[in-house]
């Protein structure tokens, strides 16, 4: 058994940090933990911002974040875990895109950072300090990386595209006020 190197330790720290944050974020959606609103409140919010049906969208996002984050932290099924988490964060980034980049202005900085870290881990792999390594990489094969990222990218494009279409329909369906303060 060889000694673990800096790369393995760095990947462990990155997996624990990214995976832990994602899992906690998803637990807010699913269970209402850590000050979250649970499925009911998150579902209502998702519906209000164009992700419909809201409860199903909240469940999918919560599962991708909680499940993907937990698996990333453990270093298990790393391609699928990283892809799922990255997909959820792409959906979150799309929501925050109109507010610009920086999180302090409500922008997509936070979601993009988590999503890129998760995708990077999916591509790089978990390192030797992981369950994937301990189990002989049975759920971390090279072909799984492009498959997981490809399927997730396609599903994310469909979901984000459907949201954009819903938002456009809402906007064109609303009538603008022509005269302020005018009553019939």
Q: Give helix and strand order, one letter per element, not per position.
A: HHHHHHH
Strand content: under 5%
Report the average pLDDT across residues.
Answer: 93
Poorly predicted regions are: none
Distance between the termini: 84 Å
**How many strand segments?**
0
Sum up the overall morphology in one term.
Answer: elongated
Instruction: Describe the main β-sheet briefly.
Output: none
- Structural class based on helices, strands and sheet pairing: mainly alpha
Give the number of helices: 7
Radius of gyration: 19 Å
User: Which percent bin holds the helix content?
Assistant: 55-70%
Topology:
Blueprint: H1 6-31, H2 38-48, H3 54-74, H4 78-96, H5 109-124, H6 131-134, H7 144-173
């Amino acid at each position: 058994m060889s000694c673990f190197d800096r790369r393995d330790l760095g990947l462990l720290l990155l997996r624990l940090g990214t995976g832990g944050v994602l899992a906690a974020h998803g637990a807010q959606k699913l269970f209402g933990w850590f000050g979250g609103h649970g499925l009911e409140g998150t579902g209502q919010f998702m519906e209000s911002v164009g992700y419909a049906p809201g409860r199903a969208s909240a469940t999918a996002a919560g599962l991708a974040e909680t499940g993907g984050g937990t698996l990333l932290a453990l270093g298990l099924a790393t391609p699928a875990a990283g892809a799922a988490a990255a997909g959820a964060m792409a959906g979150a980034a799309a929501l925050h895109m109109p507010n610009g980049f920086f999180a302090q202005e409500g922008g997509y900085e936070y979601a993009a950072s988590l999503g890129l870290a998760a995708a990077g881990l999916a591509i790089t792999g978990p390192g030797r300090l992981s369950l994937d390594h301990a189990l002989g990489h049975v759920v971390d094969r090279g072909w799984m990386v492009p498959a997981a990222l490809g399927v997730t990218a396609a599903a994310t494009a469909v979901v984000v595209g459907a949201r954009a279409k819903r938002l456009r329909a809402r906007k064109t369906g609303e009538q603008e006020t022509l005269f302020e303060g005018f009553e019939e």
